[in-house]
Write a structure and sequence with these properties.
By secondary structure, this protein is of the alpha+beta class. The protein has helices spanning 12-17, 47-67, 75-84, 93-108, 118-123, 138-147, 176-190, 286-300, 304-310, 329-332, and strands at residues 2-5, 26-33, 36-43, 89-90, 154-157, 160-163, 196-200, 203-207, 215-220, 227-233, 238-243, 247-251, 254-257, 260-261, 266-267, 271-278, 315-320, 325-328, 335-337, 345-348. It starts with a strand and ends with a strand.
Length: 349
């Protein structure tokens, strides 16, 4: 029995950019937030201007992480305690807005994106800094399935949140990194920074360019070291990836990842990785949509093209459980495959 927590690839290519500092300035700051490594790269600014702007972004990341932590004391965990006790709880306007937006996105994803399954995540042992070492109790899983809790069970009104289903527990782990990307972009622009790359554990948003050249990132191969493909990003574009190699454990030679299907209450097995690219047309929510959309499309499996259309996501790359690659034609046109085009590749209209 063993477990691993592997990082995304979307940084080694970025680190290579630092070699170009002699031609034009490129400022980088890193931190560990949201349970992963985050970095901010700023191009075309002096060190004196870039440093405080990047620091402001990292402070906002830390604030969001502490404010909406699912299992440590926070505004979110206090709300979860109230729901479990059958009580309505006052919430800040910011949290009320996050819940309402998450409900909208959950509805659009036909419930496959659902931040209301925090208790299920806890049953599987993924609400911990350490990976689980055993399967969850079967009776507890059955009870969760019988209750069928979800974010749709929450009522937001009059500055309070309530629920008739006490099994609902919010976990913004598949949502908050995208929100943070959009916040970071707004902070940087407010400070006069218009050329930057923000990376939160593989969820990436680009602003402008890297000293006149497009920002380029790599998409991790889910079963091999290195990149499956690389991708150039335009101004305001965001990339989100979900993979079963990110956070998982193994029992009896079988992999159990943190990506759970709310319909079955089980980890997904039919997909290894799924990446989406969201264009600047999504507006201020490109980061949020990129983070959110990769989860339901990962869970949807072979049905992902239909759901992608419903979510208005045109650029998708999927690696299925057998390692076969499916890619939307729009995404295929944007990718440069490392080592050549995969042999088992299917282009989806």
């Amino acid at each position: 029995m063993r477990g691993r927590h592997l990082a995304f690839l979307l940084t080694p290519l970025l680190l290579g950019f630092l070699a170009a500092c002699g031609r034009a300035p490129l400022h980088q700051q890193q931190a560990f937030v949201f349970g992963t490594r985050v970095e901010v790269l700023i191009a075309g600014q002096t060190e004196a201007a870039a440093r405080p702007a990047a620091a402001a972004v990292l402070r906002e990341f830390d604030r969001l992480h502490r404010l909406y932590h699912a299992w440590q004391p926070s505004e979110l965990s206090r709300l979860n305690e109230a729901i479990a006790g059958g009580r309505a709880a006052p919430v800040t306007p910011a949290l009320a807005a996050l819940i309402s937006e998450a409900q909208r996105l959950s509805l659009a994803s036909e419930g496959l994106f659902d931040p209301g399954i925090g208790r299920l995540i806890g049953l599987w042992g993924f609400q911990s800094d350490d990976l689980p070492v055993a399967l969850p109790d079967a009776a507890a899983l059955a009870a969760w399935r019988a209750a069928r809790p979800g974010i749709a069970d929450l009522r937001v009104a009059g500055g309070e949140v309530s629920s008739g289903n006490r099994a609902v527990a919010l976990d913004f782990g598949g949502y908050l990194k995208g929100v943070a990307l959009d916040r970071a972009a707004a902070i940087l622009k407010a400070q006069g920074v218009h050329h930057a790359l923000i990376n939160i554990g593989g969820n990436v948003l680009a602003l402008g360019s890297k000293n006149g050249e497009p920002w380029r990132v790599g998409i991790q191969h889910p079963r091999q070291p290195g990149a499956l493909a690389t991708l150039e990003l335009g101004d305001g574009e965001a990339v989100g990836t979900s993979g079963d190699y990110q956070r998982y454990f193994e029992v009896g030679g079988r992999r159990y990842s943190h990506l759970l299907d709310p319909r079955s209450a089980e980890p997904v097995r039919h997909t290894q990785a799924l990446t989406v690219l969201v264009s600047a047309d999504a507006g201020a929510g490109a980061g949020t949509l990129s983070d959110v959309a990769s989860k339901p499309l990962f869970i949807a499996g072979a049905d992902w093209p239909r759901l992608a259309r419903a979510l208005h996501v045109e650029h998708v790359l999927r690696v299925d459980g057998e390692g076969r690659v499916q890619v939307s034609r729009a995404m295929h046109a944007r990718l440069t495959y490392v080592g050549g085009q995969p042999k088992a590749l299917e282009k989806i209209p």
